[in-house]
Design brief:
Helices cover 34% and strands 30% of the residues. It is of the alpha+beta class and 194 residues long. It has a single domain, classed as 2-Layer Sandwich (Ribosomal Protein S5, domain 2).
C-alpha cells in the first residue's frame, strides 16, 4: 500500500506543491527560495527517510513569511494525506539530537490531534534569509495541518546548530512514529478512531 501524497496550494501570495513518500530513502528536491529553510527541509527528508519534493514560489519581495508558512501548511497536509486513516502505525516517536554545543528533543504523536509546545531559544533575528521567529511558526503550521502533537525543546549557543538539531530530531521522531507496526491492527487508539 502506497503511503504517498501530492498536494498543491495556490493563493495570491504563494504557489506550493509538495510530493511526499513516507517509505522513501531520504531523497529531497527542495526549492522554496529561502536557502536555510531548504536546508532544514532537506535534513527532515534525509533523516526521516522520506522522499520529499517541494516547489514553492511566493512573494519574497515582501518577505519570507508567506512562503515559509504556506510551505509548512502544505507539508502538513501532505503528511496527513500520506498517513490516511493512520491505521497500523506506531503513532508516537521521540528523538534527542545533538549538533555540536546544541541539543534538541522532539516528541511527536501523529494520531490526528494538532497541538504544539515549542521552546526554541534563538538569540539572533535571522539565519541566512530565514527569520528565526519563522521556525516555530512553521512547526506550528505543520503540526496543525498534519494533525500532529509536537513538543520541542532545544538549547545551545549557535542558532544554526539549534535549528538544525530541531529539524533532525523532528525527522527521527517522525520516522519512528509513521513506521508500520507489525503487531498493530487498525488505528492505534483505544477510541478506535483518530
Amino acid at each position: 500500500m502506497s503511503r504517498t501524497s501530492d498536494i498543491q496550494r495556490t493563493t495570491r501570495e504563494t504557489d506550493v506543491r509538495v510530493q511526499l513518500d513516507l517509505d522513501g530513502s531520504g531523497r529531497a528536491d527542495i526549492a522554496t527560495g529561502v536557502g536555510f529553510y531548504d536546508h532544514m527541509l532537506e535534513a527532515l527528508a534525509h533523516h526521516g527517510l522520506f522522499d520529499l519534493t517541494i516547489n514553492a514560489t511566493g512573494d519574497l519581495e515582501v518577505d519570507e513569511h508567506h512562503t515559509v508558512e504556506d510551505t509548512a501548511l502544505v507539508l502538513g497536509e501532505a503528511f496527513a494525506a500520506a498517513l490516511g486513516d493512520r491505521a497500523g502505525i506506531r503513532r508516537y516517536g521521540s528523538a534527542c539530537v545533538p549538533m555540536d554545543e546544541s541539543l534538541a528533543t522532539v516528541a511527536v504523536d501523529v494520531g490526528g490531534r494538532p497541538y504544539s509546545v515549542l521552546d526554541i531559544p534563538f538569540t539572533t533575528e535571522r539565519i541566512g534569509a530565514l527569520g528565526t521567529q519563522m521556525i516555530p511558526h512553521a512547526l506550528e503550521a505543520l503540526a496543525r495541518t498534519a494533525g500532529f502533537t509536537l513538543h520541542v525543546t532545544a538549547a545551545g549557543a549557535n542558532d544554526h546548530h539549534i535549528a538544525e538539531a530541531v529539524f533532525k530530531a523532528l525527522a527521527r521522531a517522525l520516522r519512528d512514529a509513521v513506521e508500520d507496526d507489525p503487531r498493530r491492527e487498525g488505528i492505534p487508539s483505544t477510541k478506535g478512531t483518530t
